Amino acid sequence: MIEHLNRWPLVWALGLFWHHQSTSSDLQELLRLTLAEVILHRLHSCLSGPVQQVDFCAGGAAASFTVSLRAVDNITVTIKMKPGVLPVCLIRVKNGPRFELKIRPGENVTLTFSCNTPEKYFMMEIQKNIDCVSGPCPFGDVHLYPPGLPRLNRTFIWDVKASTKAGLELKFSAPLRQIQPGEVCPDLVSYSINSCIDAATVNIGTFCRNGSVSRVKLLGGVILSLHLPWNLTLTTSGFNIANRSSIKRLCIIESTLEGESSIMLMSPNYPLGFPEDELMTWQFVVPSNMRASVFFHDYSLSNCERKEERVEYYIPGSVSNPEVFKLSDSQPANIAGSFNLSLQGCDQDAQNPGILRLLFQVVVQHPQIDENVTHVVDLSKERNMTVTIHFEGWPRRTPLVSEPMCLICKDPRTCDRVLTLASGATYKISFLCKDLSSLRITAEKGISCVGSLRWCGSRIYSLSVPKTITQLPVQLHKFIWRVIAPELINIEITSPSLKLRQHLPEQSCNTSYSYNIFSATPETEMNVGIFCPGGAIEKIQLRNNITISLKTFGKGFVNESNHQDLKMSFVPHIKDECTFTVSPNSKAKTYLQTPNSLYGLPPYVSISWYVIVPSQQVARLGFSTDRMGIACETGRAYLNIKEQMPGAEETVRREDELLPQPRNMHHNFWVNVSNCKPVDPMQLTLKFWVTFVEKQIDLAVILGVLAAAGVLAAIGLTVCCVKKKKKKNQNPMVGVYNANVSTQMPGKQRLFQKDRKTNESHVYAVIDDAMVYGHLLKESNGSVTPEVDVYQPFDGPMGSLPPSPPPFSFRKDSIKHSPNTEEPPLLAETDRDTYTFAHQKSGDLEDSGDENENNNGDTSMSLLENKEQNSLEE
Prior knowledge:
- This protein has nine helices and 57 strands.
- 12% of the residues lie in helices and 38% in strands.
């Protein structure tokens, strides 16, 4: 077989070997053996043939090493291949080439390598067994032995057997730093310490140089490994062994901290479980003029059958030593001087033991100048509110160990980088921090409506930051209001004096704070938009639960917070997903955009804007694009525009049609956008703008109006003369009927703003003259004249009519006139002329008054409601 394989290049064999690395273990072993035979055969040919044939053994001139081990030292040296490398380099000894070499105590071996860079392919272990049970321990400094070893990656292993009645102490000349599993030391020099009790081995930890751990005491035996890179030459191990009395616990780790510093430590076997029912201790040596704080970063608990897992602190000067804490508690902080920390396990459930582990940080710093300065945070009158003080970037960024520590304290010993205060109490806090600019405040408040609108609708909530927060010497980062309302009860946000501006590229916010409003539905969350004070939006009505996040920018918020006027209340159900009431500044251009601009308006969502136009001005309405920019998969998307006036024309555009050109609006008007289900990935985002110009009064129109007024006055004078002449000859007097005033009862309830007790729709004035046709009511003798009343017409505010999309059967773009039964516009002028009629029955008047009383309430009517009413009438 060797002769057959020898005809093929070595590369073929190597490629075959690596190509089948994913094959079964038996095939892998066969390939390894075959490859080894090939390599050995080629090496034999190389060594026995002429020099020009030495193509495989490039290291023919490599230096030789002699390893001589004394039997009394009990040292074994093993040279073996690194895992995962190609076996293209071999060890030459007098017995022939090898892949692995083991030199036992008392042996003397001379070796060379078949390549010039053996450190790429080989590693070496030097293990020394020390028996401190049956013989004396070699106390003192531990040296690296034997000398003259090949320059390979080396691992020195000291396996020390010792009695559990006499603990071993490892003292390090250069303090160590504990690292987590998988972490690599910068200089590639590391120590691994394992404790051996009977047959059990516990990994105490892995350590790098340049740290704070100066001593480790262990119960029973120990296995210590020192890993060195091939290019580093050391003559000493850096530690010594001393014998002490039994420590009655798994281990004691001593850490000496000098000056301001921060260290990370972890329990044995981390991240695996701490041994069952064991006890261990960390001893921290801290200068008396420094302060130490402990923070738990990661921990888990096992399932205990007996006892309880806990940590215990021994703090010199404490009146309650040891101080016992749960792992879930806030750990002591601002500790003056040295202290001990112990971890106690429990008896675990045999069926489901769980894992006890702990990763923690100890920070040492100088006492802070203002540590005795307290700040009062009064949350006693607040409800459903939390205030969190934290470092900048929390919770997304975890602070580095090397970063300056900033602590917030509820009391002198309860401090942390993150402190949360709950409502209903008053706190006195202090800061252990040189620079408070690295701290931030995040607060959250919950507002909910429980029950009916009767209980919730009468209250107006002020969405302002409490002064107890703004007075702290820490910048407010974010204040969040989470508003929850039951079904059929909606939410209204108002800004009466400042009004809101929608943050858009054309009108960006330049204030010290802004509001981000989210509307949460069971299916999705819609970002209504970012708003700041100083705009045109007076009111926002939202149909679902909302989240309002106030975010600050810079230090100017402290002054501007005194002028916040954002209000919130619960209102009756609205049909649109969101409705904006906008009163633009007459001197500026106002931009408005559909919500959720980043992802597009959600499918089947309808949004409305009600724009108020001043009486002496004309609004100019335009759109930023000429089309909606979507194609519908299901349904249709519509844009509706309608002025708020009797007989107003309604403009409708579909998603496949051009949007209207800029147009003038002389009255308050509605803009409504209703979405379909767009074809992926198309999204509906629509933006429009509003500007104002002064109304131009035409002189010809004025003269025409004056002329018409003169004609009407002449006609009126003539009629008066005729009436006066007829009055002398007729009895009873003829009533005057004003045909311009509608006598039809409203077709929709809640038309009147006032109820029966307060409106004047049922007030009459009695007159002496008889009504026309009054003779029909006379008795047979003709002596009775019926009472005649004067009706004063209602002139209160009338309902507004927001537009709504046409039904899906609508096929053609049109200008649609409102039906004759449309309700009068908001604050419409009505004629004040009187009706004159006979008061026939008291029952009739009572019925009329009852109807007025039933129509008491808000007269606002959305476009969708108006369309439903029109459909019923048709």
